[in-house]
């Protein structure tokens, strides 16, 4: 934990210029587990200067050299896997089984996805018209990540930057600094030249805004709320940076009567509650065909009642707490809003689960008879709260599904393959999950509409960090 009060800049752990700090709190116990330094504009300047200086050499490394470094990262990440899993368990309350199987697993999975993509990537393409197109690293990148999937988001940004020959400054969420610190230790050990990767901890409106405005940063990659994403876009506009955004969601899950109801509805509730509902692409709006509505309510209620809530340090498939008090209060408020709006509280509700007095634990909650114009159907709640909305036919289901400012993911449960194709084609979302189909590492991830722009992961994730240069006249007799 020594490095928590330092930043990793120019290949060294250095004392911050800023003297501000913040406690890091375990959400399951409400105990302080560390103190993180919060940077300021001067800390950002220092990191950007290091990244800028390192770009000159690192941008000219060969693909083979960069692949070799990524293999080093892989070996060290595998060795420090348990450290990462335990860090996320402590700093954001991810239950340890899930922290290993999904949160820490993402660090290895995405890495392999980028290695595979980089191996295939063509850096130089001869066009049919005789011109040549060269793909070059864009420059110094500013990377801002949220707390809900800490390593998933960090690796989706840091790795493609390093894979393409960019240099970068990472500002992780101030709420999950421990896993980010460990990742910086991993990259340090992997042997990246000084200044290629830099870590500055701190708050969004201070460190994040200083990065977004910095004239020597060429690209900002941001994951977080739509609110903060628009702030980054505005701050970056003055210096005409490339900005890629992965933002919020309110993903619909369309349940047709022709699917295996017992299996698909139970799994759907589980997916909504997974990570205590704190996933940008969680299926939080269950749209149900009227003919099977009553049956679905029974199955969903049972699934929520059987969702365990418990200590993240214990093995098992239970969910953990929300990540902090602010989120706990927000979720409680939204449950109250649902009750006040007249939705039927099917299961769960206000307060902690019985017998739990400490920690930001909440009850898995389902509202039925929700209409899509209610606040609980429109706003991202970011807790284990599912809303159920009935529909009459396919056309109405599609219309309700698309009636949202977001477009990150959509889910579809049907036993009819033709319907699956037909409906998926009309859903405005970056990913459509059919009958439980999950995302593989290396597949592009991102959203339509206010869920962002750009795609992360694999080949498309690499493309985001590249500039295109065209060469004309190369190979002509005079050259
Ligand atoms: P947040 O927007 O509050 O914070 C995200 C990051 O942005 C943090 O590092 C924060 O410090 C920083 N930040 C905040 N204000 C900023 C500003 N003005 N300028 C620059 N940076 C700023 O989000 P959060 O609460 O940490 O995470 C939850 C949100 O992230 C949810 O909306 C969720 O849907 C979204 N999310 C999206 C994806 C995706 O891939 N689409 C993945 C995970 C989370």
Entry summary:
This protein has 479 residues and is α/β, with parallel strands linked by helices. The chain contains 15 helices and 20 strands. The radius of gyration is 23 Å and the shape is globular.
Tell how many strands the DSSP assignment holds: 20
Low confidence ranges: none
Number of helices in the DSSP assignment:
15
Tell me the span between the first and last alpha carbons.
57 Å
Shape: globular
Helicity range of the residues?
A: 40-55%
> What's the average pLDDT?
97
Which structural class should the secondary elements be placed in?
A: alpha/beta
Radius of gyration: 23 Å
Which small-molecule ligands are present, each listed once? nicotinamide-adenine-dinucleotide
Strand content: 15-25%
Main sheet: strand order: 14-15-16-13-12-17-18
Major sheet attributes? 7 strands, mixed
What would you note in describing this structure?
- The chain has 479 residues and is an alpha/beta fold.
- It is 41% helix and 20% strand.
- The protein contains 15 helices and 20 strands.
- The strands form five sheets. The protein has a seven-stranded mixed sheet with strand order 14-15-16-13-12-17-18, sandwiched between helices. A six-stranded mixed sheet has the order 9-8-7-10-11-19, with helices on both faces. It has a three-stranded antiparallel sheet with strand order 5-6-20, with no helix packed on it.
- The longest helix is centred in the first third of the chain and has 25 residues.
- It is globular and about 75 Å long.
